[in-house]
Amino acid sequence: MKKVALITGASRGIGRSIAVHLGQSGYQVVVNGTKQALINEVVDVILQAGGTAFGYCANVADPAAVTTMVDTVVAKYGCIDVLIHNAGNLHDQTCSRMTDEDWYSVLDVHLNGAFYCINRVLPHMQNHGGDILLMTSTAGLTGSIGQVNYSAAKAGTLGIVWTLAAELKRERIRVNAISPAALTDMTRPVIEHLKGKHASRNEPLPELWRVGEADDIARFVVELLAQQDDNLSGEIFGVNGSKVTKWQKPEPVLSENSIEAFFKVLHHQKGSK
């Protein structure tokens, strides 16, 4: 029986590419987004290629809407095997200028939306196992100036992954995250701005911002889901073009038995760099 994959934020960009590739790989794909016309376009692409798909318009920041969406998917297909939370938005601003609305709107989609989707999907996944994939970012891994809301949301995603990978291991549910680097509608304005900024200084664009395509992320997702390894969970994968990076969970790098000794060693280390 074909596996069922629910993908949020699948009407464009990375989510769209993942939906199309999974459709080509034999999954029954549920395309979620907030614009029905764009959702319909993705569904049509999958159907025309001989795949199985249907669309559901819902805002993942609305818990009631997520509940209804999941109930609808289960009523149609009987279960959910794969959940990919890709929905995202940006409201960039320096912290002192950021409004409460800027803060909450980003966390509501990226972080709260992830929880709502996982929480509603789990009862329909725990009996047979499955995969949960969340999208994080280097902003969540290392921080990003002017994106304190986005960085916080994506860092929170890591906590979800590490916690649930352990919590759901017995149910054979794998939980992983991808930090994608790809040219999409959301990233293009940022990258174009940076290109202009560095060009005006006669500087090359940093390697971090030389990104691949959304299809590169989709191909990695297909391969990741195909891996027959129940222990492949709790991982953070960076994907940029054909380059794949595995990030480590943070570990202690300095520990001393007294406050004085700690700061002495800390300053020594900083001075030696």
UniProtKB/TrEMBL annotation:
Pfam families: adh_short (PF00106). Residues 3-214 form the Ketoreductase domain. The keyword Signal does not apply. InterPro entries: KR_dom (IPR057326), NAD(P)-bd_dom_sf (IPR036291), Sc_DH/Rdtase_CS (IPR020904), SDR (IPR050259), SDR_fam (IPR002347). One of its GO terms (biological process) is monocarboxylic acid metabolic process. It is an enzyme of class 1 (oxidoreductase). Keywords: Oxidoreductase. The keyword Oxidoreductase applies. Signal peptide: none annotated. One of its GO terms (molecular function) is 3-oxoacyl-[acyl-carrier-protein] reductase (NADPH) activity. Its EC number is 1.1.1.100. Gene3D superfamilies: NAD(P)-binding Rossmann-like Domain (3.40.50.720). Belongs to the short-chain dehydrogenases/reductases (SDR) family. This is 3-oxoacyl-[acyl-carrier protein] reductase. It comes from Fontibacillus solani. The lineage of its organism: Bacteria, Bacillati, Bacillota, Bacilli, Bacillales.
